[in-house]
Every structure is written in C-alpha cells, then in structure tokens.
Amino acid sequence: MSEAGKTDSPEQAEFRAHCRDWLSKNHPGTPPVSLPQSALALTDDDALVWLQKWQKSAYDAGLIGCDYSKDCGGQGLTNCQAIANEEMTRAKTPFLPNIIGLGMGAPTVYFHAQDEVKQKLLPRLLSGEDIWCQGFSEPGAGSDLANQQTFAEKKGDSWVINGHKVWTSLAHYASWMIMLCRTSKEDKYNGLSYFVVPIKSALGKGVTVRPLIKLTGETGFNEVIFEDLVVEDKYRLDEVGAGWAVAMTTLAHERGAGKLVTPASGGLASAEDKSSSIGSANALIRLAKASSRNGKTAADDPVLRDQLMQLMIRQEGFRHNRRRIGVPELNDHPMRLPLQFKLVSSELGQDISHMAYKIQGAASSLYVNDPNAPAGGQWPMAYMSSFGITIAAGANEVQRNILGERVLNMAKSK
Ligand SMILES: Cc1cc2nc3c(=O)[nH]c(=O)nc-3n(C[C@H](O)[C@H](O)[C@H](O)COP(=O)(O)OP(=O)(O)OC[C@H]3O[C@@H](n4cnc5c(N)ncnc54)[C@H](O)[C@@H]3O)c2cc1C
Q: Above 50 in pLDDT, residue 273?
C-alpha cells in the first residue's frame, strides 16, 4: 500500500518487499561526519564521499533510477521510484547528495539527449559517482529566466561558450552542468539552446568556479565563469533554439510535476547535531520540552503550546495535500498542487524555524560551533537558510504570479 493509500500492483508489491528487505540489512548507519541540513549546503569532502557511497549502494540495489530504461542505467520498471522513496524515507536513510542531477539533470537528459549521451552520462549520475549542477541563473537572469546572456557560438562541429552563471549550487563538486545559453540575439525565447557541459574536467581550461558566502556563513553555491569553453555539438539537448522548451522539462521536474518521480531519501539524524530532524514541528515540540520557561518547560507555556499546535496542524495539512498529488481524481488542475508545494513548504519551514527563536529566547542568538547553543545552533541556521528556500527554484512572489495566471486564470501581471 502506497503513502497515497493506493494498492500496489503485483510488480510494485514485489519491489516494495525488495526495498524493505534491502534497507533492513543495508542502512548505512550513523554518519561518521557531521551532515549539513541539505545536500545544497554540502562543502565537506568527507561528508560528500560518505553520502556518495550511500547513493551508489542504493543505486546498485535498484532503489534509484528504477523507472529509467535499462540501457540508461535504470531498472526499466514502471511507477516504482515513488515506492523506493517511501521506503527509504520510512527507513530514515541519509539524503542523496546528487540532488540536482537526480531531480533535474536526469529527466532532462533522458527526454532530450541523444542516445549515446544518455547512455554515457545517466548511469554515473544516478549512482552519484558524478555530481551535477544547474546553470540557469545569471546576474541579470533569475526570475526573468529567458534573459540569458551566456552565449554559445557555433564553430565547426563545436560550440564556444562565454558567460557568467550565478547561485550555482554544488558547482564546486560538479562534473557536469545542465545549462541554458543564448545562441541567437534575435529572439528572446527562440534564441535559447540547452547544453550539458563538463565542469570538473574543464576547470582552469575555460571554466572557473568561485564560492559565494550565504547569510548562514556557509558556501554551497557559487558563481561559474565560462571563457571560451569548447563543447561538442552532441552535448546540445534537442534542437538549436529549443532551449526554452527543454528548460520547461527541467522546471516541471524541479516543481514535482514532471513525468518521472525524483529519487528521494532522508530523515537520518546526524549523531552530532541531529540536523536532519531540524525543521519539523515535531522537532519543535522536542525543543520546547527541553527548554525552560519561568521554572517550567517551554512546552508548558499555554501561548507557546497554542502556537505549536497551529504549526502541527499546518504541517499535517501539508502532508495530506502532498498525498493528494498522487491521486489525479482529487486534483482539478495538474499544476495546482506542485506549484503550491514549493510555496507552502518553504513558508511553513520558515515559520517553524522562526518559532524556535521564541522557544529558545535569548539562547537563540547562539550559533553553530558554540558549545552552549541549544540543538547545536541548528535552529538559527535553519531560520536563516529558510530565506534562501523561499527564493531558490523561483522566488515565491513569482510562484504566486504563476499560480494566479496559469491555475486560477487571473489577469496577467505587468
Ligand atoms: C539557496 C539557493 C540556491 C540556488 N541554486 C541555484 C542553482 O543551483 N542554479 C541556478 O541556476 N540558480 C540557483 N538559484 C537561483 C534562484 O533560482 C534565483 O535566485 C531565483 O530564481 C530568483 O532570481 P534572482 O535571485 O535573480 O532575483 P530577482 O529575479 O532579481 O528577484 C528579486 C526580487 O524581485 C521579485 N520579483 C522579480 N520579478 C517579479 C515579478 N514579475 N513579480 C513580482 N516579484 C518579482 C522577486 O520575487 C524577488 O523578491 C539558487 C538560489 C538560492 C537562494
């Protein structure tokens, strides 16, 4: 039985039993290193290596890329990735490090690349041996994504790329980048083409990756400069000028509305800081029970209790809404819930981590690396990170515009 209450087909039931059995014997256990709150904040080489090993073992067991065809490194199954995800989450496994590759790179390459490129790149992407990043945003092209200025010029059988990408998560570890480039200045949308480009092998030879520091003090994202990088034509996805349509495949999967389910896993709490449990209303209740307030615990304060319950109710509502995504009969518009998902989850996460400030009081000014900080200082970090989450994958203001215009058919904003 799936999380959405659907009965498994015989193939799915057999696959679920395999996942459960394998996970019961092969859970990687407590991480020997401190893990960040999300794969997007990975900067520790040891943490990356440990997480890559976990992704590879789950891939080898058939839990990642299950719905991809066998010639591209998948299992050739149907509607089984969601089951693997449910079982990995239930088993509280660590998160998967190649988050951008799995969520955006893999489906885009699968639906738009030549067979030779798919067969070469997808197995190492799915196994996590190659980390991928996404080169969409530029200094002048964020919400206005079609305003790409990075230029790819055709020279013989290759393309020469020059330009500047920014906010590129995981570029410091990436072997490959999915990338939108301008190939014609004549037409804003039809002048875009889509490429997959080597990053790691081109460092110092046309590619420079520089870290950017976030509000949290972490890096995790970067700016990437291209200076005469030569890319073979076979790494162009779909037709010249069709980049915008290819980018829609990427964005649909980023928003959870694509044809392929993204492999997902998580829930493991790091032994040191329990960071992966930070961010849920349940963790807030634990924090309130452990925090003192006027001679009692913060959980005994009636005002805080009421606010905590409001967050629990929103979290529960979110969980049920999420289950509805998998039941077409309960959806009036295919994009409504996927578009709402990012808005609601990022704002709920922000309100939950803000509540931790009220519970911790003055102690919430103590940050990570301070031995006196409650919960290892992870709550203030989660609150500061939450601002980035409301911006990443399309700023929430812009998401609201899209929901208004495309789902509710409201008048277009100027
Ligand atoms: C943590 C993090 C990770 C990221 N990772 C990546 C990555 O890996 N790869 C990548 O390509 N990009 C990445 N991004 C970039 C992200 O996609 C952009 O930041 C986002 O699309 C917003 O673009 P911008 O920063 O240029 O802001 P702008 O587009 O300049 O927007 C600035 C403000 O104006 C508002 N605004 C703009 N247009 C409108 C409008 N029409 N109506 C109402 N309000 C509007 C926005 O909501 C925002 O508040 C990441 C961002 C963050 C925060």
A: no
